[in-house]
Amino acid sequence: MMMENLLLTKGQIIGEDGELIPADIRIHQGKVVEIGKQLAEAGETVIVVEEKLIIPGLIDLHIHLREPGFEAKETIATGTRSAAKGGYTTVACMPNTNPITDCVEGVRRILDTNDQEGCGVRVLPIAAITKASNGNELTDMAALKEAGAFAVSDDGVGVQSPRMMKAAMRQAAEVYVAVIAHCEEEDLLVEGACVHEGQFAKEHNLPGIPGESEAIHVGRDILLAEDTGVHYHICHMSAEASVRLLREAKSRGQWVTGEVTPHHLLLCEEDIPGMDTRFKMNPPLRRRKDQEVLLEALKDGTIDFIATDHAPHTTEEKAQGMVKSPFGIVGLETAFPLLYTHLVATGKLTLKELVDKMTQNPAACFQLPWGRLAEGAIADLAIIDLNSERVVDPENFASKGRNTPFGGWKLKGWPTMTLVEGNIVWQEPGIHL
Ligand SMILES: NC(=O)N[C@@H](CC(=O)O)C(=O)O
Ligand SMILES: [Zn+2]
Ligand SMILES: [Zn+2]
């Protein structure tokens, strides 16, 4: 990619105490070299950002790109474009493709495809914990890491055997890769379980997924991880009991981290309008109490960061009804405006808290060098128009997925430009330099 030196002028950045500060940003050779007021142009291309907010590029450590194997749902090209449009500059993709990313070739293939067909957003491949994610045999984590795997996960299913999970943690600790867990105990599930085992399930006579099916794995894994020294990370936390267990583990100083999705922060089972598969995801939307606890835990730092779990499916797949349709909703293009509008504009989180939990917190949890806006930092940036107001229209998504419960929601705070290492990877149509 061509490296162009840029001068972003008349922007605003978030200061140490959360205040908005007018700022210009000079970018040379892919790095932020100077942040200040009214910087003099020195041969750069000038972009006047007109009072918009400049933040570190967003980082999403849990998405599904679907390639190889499920290209009708999403490809690396469409998924990374969707990420860029949402203000994301780094994404980590789960291995539940076909084939599952459980070998060196699979990891390399994702990196190569992104180099050739991606829009410039950085993709970190997550490799499987067990071969074919079937829970029977561990992958070669040292080789996977060497090939460029970011971490290991069997996302989509829980690792059912505690013995296998313990062995996985031992190996992961030895080669310094994190174990990222989809926590779900299948022994507590019934055939066709599709929504939270609670009020909505009862009213609609649907088989439910209990909160304990998540929490029992969280508790089990915290115990298993304790003596291994592994970094254990909990996917898409949804249940109050899981939060309680994470909080306790952290209070003892254990290396456990957790993420939460925008949909679990903003919705609960009471919001499901009926037999609408756009509200079907795993884990399911739970009680209002769980939703409230998740937000509290995110605010107080128990839950470390926000990840979308962007999970595109085709319209046909999602048209098979509540029981048969696949779990999952898309999230990359709506995450920031949703959370800005419903958590920041309502005073539940500060703007700095929200941005930190989508940038520097995920980076810090996994020792990634991105997610900061400072002199000397890599110029991964998102420019956000906090005042722009638009209605979510899934037909306009860059993602192939249209499966969102947020269609029709009126939101503020849309990204207008995304830069990775100083290169513009997406900009709102109609903006000309
Ligand atoms: N979250 C979901 O509802 N679905 C994910 C799988 C997963 O994240 O467990 C998918 O791959 O579709
Ligand atoms: Zn999962
Ligand atoms: Zn997932």
Automatic annotation (TrEMBL):
The active site is at residue 309. The lineage of its organism: Bacteria, Bacillati, Bacillota, Bacilli, Bacillales. Residues 345-425 form the Amidohydrolase domain. This is Dihydroorotase. The keyword Zinc applies. Pathway: Pyrimidine metabolism; UMP biosynthesis via de novo pathway; (S)-dihydroorotate from bicarbonate: step 3/3. It comes from Marininema halotolerans. Its EC number is 3.5.2.3. Keywords: Hydrolase, Metal-binding, Pyrimidine biosynthesis, Zinc.
